[in-house]
Each structure stands twice: as C-alpha cells, then as structure tokens.
Amino acid sequence: MRLSVERFRLIRDIINGRYGIWFSDEHRYLMESRLGERMVQLGLESFDDYYYFIKYNPDGETEIEEAVDVLTTNETYFFREDYQLRAFAGELLPEMHRRLAGRRKLMIWSAGCSSGEEAYTIAILVKNSGLFEGWDVRIFGSDVSKRVLARARSGVYRTTSFRTTPEGIIKRHFSEHSGGMRVNDDIRALCNFGHLNLLDADKSVLLGRVDVIFCRNVMIYFDKRSKLRAISMLYDRLNNGGYLLLGHTESLLNLSTAFELVHTSEDLVYRRPEVSHG
Amino acid sequence: MSTLEDTKRRMRDPSPEVRRRAVMSLEQALGPEADELIIEALGDEDWRVRKEAVSLAAVSARRGDLLDSLVQSMLQEENVGQRNAAAEALASAGRPAVDAILGAMSRFDESGRKIACEVLGASDDPRAVDALAGILDDDDTNVRMCAAEWLGEIGGRKAVDALLPCLASTDKLLVLAALQSLNTIGENIEWASLEPLAGESLYGDELLLALGRSGAPQAADFIVRELSRSHVAARALELLHGSDSKGAQAVYRVLNAAPETVLDLLAERAAEEEPVERQAAARCLMWSRRASHMPRIVALARSESMYPLLLEELGSWGDDAVDELERMAARESGRELASVLGLLSRLVGEEERSRFGPLFAKHLVSEDPVVATAAAGASARFGDVSDVARLVELMKSKDPRVSRTASLSLAEMGRRFPEVVAEKMRQLDIEGSEGVHICRVLEVVGDPGDVGRLSTAMTSPSPRLRRAVIVTLAEIAREEALDKISLALTDEDTGVRMAAASALARVGPAASDTIVSALRTSEGPVKGALIRALGKVGHPEASGILRGLLRGPADEAITALEAAGQLELDPGQMLGEILGHPDGEVVKQALSVLSESVPNERLAGLLEHPAWDVRLAAVEGLEVRDLDQDLEDALRDRLAREDDDLVREAIRRLLSRTR
After folding, report:
1. In chain B, whose CA is at the least distance from the CA of A204?
2. CATH number of the domain that residue A52 is part of
C-alpha cells in the first residue's frame, strides 16, 4: 500500500502536533512500512482510512500513541553512553550529596525512558555510590508509549539489553527470571514509571521539582518549536542547581541560553543556575 | 371579530392543536361565555383539548366558579368524555367541589354516584368521610364498594368506625371491600367480627391478613390450615406473631404441630417467593422450633440476603440452635457444612472461642473451597495465632472467593495479632498472585517500614496491584507517601490514576496543592475523583477552583457542587455559575441541593429557561415560597407564553393558591 506525499504530511502533522516528533520527507517510506502493519491490524484498507481513523475515530488518540511507538526507535540498553554515566556517578552524585545533605532527598527523571533500562541504570549508580543511604531517593521514568512502559515495569530483560553492562553489576543487581534477567527489588523500589508527553507542561507539574533530568536521544525526533517547548518545561521542572543530561549528539545550541554548561572530566552537561533566571 | 369570537372559531378548527391553544387562551378571558366554552371543551373529541380544559376548569372550580356547570356535565349521559373530564376537574378542585357534589347527589344515577364517590375521596375535604360513610348503604353494590374503598384510602378513626359495621353486611362484596380497606388502614379487627367470616372463601387473602392483625390466638389454627392454599398465610402468621405474646405463642404452637408437608411447603416458598412472602415463610419455618427442621433452615443460608433474618430468629432459640448446628457440623459436608459454619460463626459470641475455634480451624484445611471459605470467614473472629499460616496459604488460592475471604480474615486477625500477621506478610512476595490481598492486610498491620516493598510493587506491570499499593501507601504512610502517589497520577492506567486521586484525600491537607495541580491536566473519572478529594481536604483557592468547574461539563459541575457542599462554601457565591449552566440537569440538581439559598428573583429568572423541565423545577421551587406581586406577575406572564402543558399546569396550580 502506497503512502502519498500528501497523506504522509497530514499524518506527520498530527503526530507532530501531539508529541512534537518530526518526520522529514525522507521518513515517508519508513512510515509507509511501519504504519502499513498498523493499518492491517486495524482492518483498514488505505492510508486515507488510516488518516481518518486517527483524526476522527474515538480511539484515534490511542492509535497515535501506537503510531509513535512503532515509528520511533525504542532500542536501548543498560549503561548506554557510559562516559556520561561515569561523570554522573563520579562527579555529579558526590556534588549533589554535598549540596542536598540538608534535605536528604534526591529526585531524578529519566524523560523518554523507553523500556526502563536507563531508569534502572541510574538507580544502580545511585545505590552503588553508597552516598544516599537513608535518603528519600526517587527515579521517575516516563514515556509516551504504554507498550514500553509495561516492559519497564516488568523489569525483565534479555541479553541484548546487557551488551555494555559489567558482569559484576549483573550479578549484584539482577536475578534469573523466566524470559531473561530481572532487576532486583532493592533497585526497583527506587523507581516509578509514568505516562508523560514532554510537551504536556501542565501534567509534568505532578512530578514536582527534580535534581537531574536524563533526556537522552529523545529530542532528536522533535522539530525546533517542540524542542523549545520541551526544554522550557524541563527547565521549569529542575531545582536550582539541577542537571540536564542530553544524548551525545544533542545540544542546546540555538535553543536555550537559560542553562549553564558544566564541564565534567568526560562530558559536558547542562545545569539550571543556582540563582535561577526565573 | 372579538377575542372570544375568535376563540370560538378556533375551537371549531379541525386541528386539535389549534383547538387546544384556543382553550389555553381562555385563561385570560373571564365571564359566563368563557365558562361555557370551557365546559364545551371538556367534551372535545381530542384528549389533549379535554386535558387543557380540565386544567382550566379545576382552577375555576377552586375559586367557586363553574361548579354547577361541572355537576351538570356529570349528570348528562350523551358525552362520556365530557362526563369524565368534569369529574376529573371537580376531583382536582378539592373542597369547593364537595358542596356541589353533595347537593347534587340525589340527582345522580348509579354511575354518577360512583364518580361522585371518587370526587369526594380525592377532595381532601374532612366532610368527605361522613359523606362516603353515608353512601355505604347506597342501593347499588358498585357505589357501596367504591365508597368503602375510598374510606380505606382516606383512613382515620371515623373511616374505621364507618367500615367496621360493614363486616356484618349480607352484601359479600361490601364485606370484601371493607376488609380490604381496613387492611389498608392497618386496623386490628376483633376476633368476634372476623370469626363469622371464616367460612367464606370469597374473602380469601384479605380475611387471612385481617385475622393475622387481629392478634387473636384462635386465629392461628385457621391461618395455618390455609398455608397450603394461600401464599399470604405465612404473612398472616407473621402479623399474628407480631401482635403480642399470646399471638406469638399461638403461632409457635400451631407451627410446632404442623404436618411435615406444610413445613416442606414453607421451605420451598422461603427459597422462591417474593421478598415479603419469602421472609414470612422463612420465619414460619423457624417458629416451628423443631431441631429436626434445622437442615431446611440451613438450606436457606445459601442466600446471603437471608442471613440477618436467620440470625435474628435462630438467636431467639438460644443454645438449642447452637447445639443443633454443632451436631450438624459433625455430620454434614460441602455446601451444607459451609452454611452451618457461616451461621455458627455469626451466632456464637467470641467468649466461646475455645469451644468453636478448633472446629473452624479444622475446616480451614478442607479441600472443598466452599467449606474452606466459610472456615476462613469464621477465623476473622475465632482464629488463633496458629491459624495465621493456614490462612496465608488460603490467601494464595487460585479461587478468588477463598483468597479474598482469607485476606479479609487476616486483616481482621491483624487487629488482634498485628506483629504475627505483619511478619507473615513480610515473608510473602508482594508481586506474586496474592499481592492485592497482601496490600489489603498491610492496610491494617503495615507500618512505614513496608513503604520500600510497596514502592517496588509500584513498578509492577499489573495495574490492579498498583492500585492496591496506592491505597495501602496512603493508609500507612500518609504524607510520606505523597510524592509516590503524585507520580502515580501520571500512570498509564486510568484505574491507577483514579486510585491515586482518591488516595490524595486520605493523605489529607498536605495533598491539597497536588490535587489542585492535577486538576488542571486531568479529565473524565480521574478529574471527578480529584474534585471529590478537593472537597475532602480543601484548599485556600478551593472556592474559585470549584466555581470554575461549575461552568464545565455536567458531571464535573455536579461533582464540584457536591465538593462545595462538603467544604461548606457559601452557596450564594456559586449561584451565578451553576444556575447559568447550559445543561438543564445540572441546574435541576443545583436547585434540589441549594433550594433554600436560591432567591426568588433567581427562580423567577429560570421561568425563562429554554428547557421545560428546568422551568417546571423552578415553579416547583416557588411552591414552598410566599408569592409577592412581582413573582405573581412573572408567573402570569410566563403562563401566557408557556407551551408545555406540565409547566402550565404547575403554574396554574401555584397561582390558584393566591386567588
């Protein structure tokens, strides 16, 4: 089934309007093949029907979520981009331990957590740092896909998720489980998961303020306008002095000057200034 | 052409709607010619026109006009529709119609006299009782019966005094009508008046009920003989039992001596009949007081709704019932044993724990899930520390009845043995199949030390478990769980978000900011739960927030109205929003909730509401108020333009009060 340029753009605009995710014209064939499968599952005969379904059917909103789910690459793994994680564990955590000792509460947000590997990685790093025993620690993973959230909640992963995970970490924090390895309860107890669109600033208020936001390889799908909205929301959610960690190919260049750049030994991270801009 | 001439012309129009509107316009016209037209309209071939005319005629009759003409209409025989319409107008005219009717009584034929009885009965005039009593010796049977029936409807001592002599009448139909009316009134008729009637089958169920109410011990033998014939006989015995101790003793005596076939019949009816007869049959069965009938009684316990009655009656048996049930427990199995255990556990006091605890504990290991469930239920009151382990095993059962009952009992035992039960719960995998049950028990025995495990379970893929965890967290950690509950408001499952919204109310005032934040982004049932939570915990800006919600969708507006009531906010501040709501149902709800707070001018304003049902609610709201001139003018103005017949009728009724 062919996806015409016109229908491609109409479907793309709907997804962009809801989630900020942007597909350039060269993604037309990707959309054709992946949404073609959805069409078959829904019993629809053409992309015209599919377009009308997501636009007018009462279940259209849910289908847009499904479309986003199949169109965006959710593939991730534990300890991905480990140089950044080393900086986080070796420099940011000790700094926060000193700075936040008064309130003994640490809140970290894995925005666009996909199937949960990043949130659990963060929890393992916090736990292994040994700095936060007795603190109120919470790692919140969010995504727009309910399917990946269900996987994150199950906490069970196959071998491919451990491609860069040190053996000692696996032994210490995972247990054999039917279907793979399961994250141990002491780590899972630190994590919560929720359904959140990064363009929904109002709903994000429910998180309260956080100390670190991991938003890695999420905004690569966004157009500029959506990136600006998302970054503004992330800024609002950070406590003064809180860190924003983006993917290695992402930066805030030409997007925001509200953050300050912090040089760690292995990476550059963004930080909301101690004296906030507002 | 004069206005009245025009009305006359329109009243001859072939269209019923034109004729109906023409009759409506007579509201504004006064005088003999208009009255004549109203009477004429009472005989219209179309019911809608007649209905309009009846409404107008009743208003006129209430102020004393048209009465003679209406009586004349009742006397004529050519137009039955007009005759009935005139009677209806007179009946709804009330007291002024009574004089007219009484004055004309001698001129009515039998069917006119019957209608007259109905007018008198519905008139609400105290003189009607004497008048109806006088008609009890009318020449016509139908008229006599009609008078007796209306006396029963009116009730009171004078009506009873008029009806009682009828029981000695040779007119059996009058006797039947009198019995029926006396039963309707609830009169206890003396045995002496009823005994002569006992041989007449025509009186049937009415006589049985009257015998039951009589309280006469002699009635018991007669009623019990009727048990096999009449479904009302058990109810009659119930009445006799309730009359006094002599009546009760007589009932015990006759039922104790009743043949087995009768008791079989009662057991059958107790399982099948309508609620009233069913309960009466069940009570009769137990009043037989024969231990040998216990299996029949136990069979009734299969229905949970019968338990209160069974416990009440078996409780009056004292030790006899407990001893017999204990004997049955030794020999029964399956469903019967489960019912025995269920009854025993409710009949016996906890001071008997040492006697019955072992019995219930023994059946906790039954392989029959029905028996194990009953034993688990009994453990809530009779269980010992040694039963905890077995209950935990039952809680893991795949049978939802067993697992649920076991968890509820564990929660109850947790109040007696909190440390033992809590320790057992801590040994279980909260993410296993019994996780929801563990949460239920932890609600009672949990402490802040369990928050970690519960937090782990919040990552469970099972929304059902996440919901249970939220409730438990709120219960045992309150404010300390606020962050976790807030995050659950982003859960992808609506049920979990609803549980989180409701849990915020349990957290208390510390959750008020979270509730307000969440309200901005929630929809549907979650938003409803949040509004209710706001109503419970309050917020400095609650008044403004709720006022805003009052302008929203109907379900939110109504919930916000309830929340405002819970917070005891000044309803006067909300009237503008709620009474201006586009959904008429919301406005009606508001009127029913805020009725006293709605000033007259607001109610008058609603007379112009586009929805007829709201206008009707406004008129009904005004019925309990004193009408000043402005309100009266507003009502008249509306009446002249009102299209809806119900609203017009209500306005006319209201205005006739002022004339």
Report:
1. B490
2. 1.10.155.10
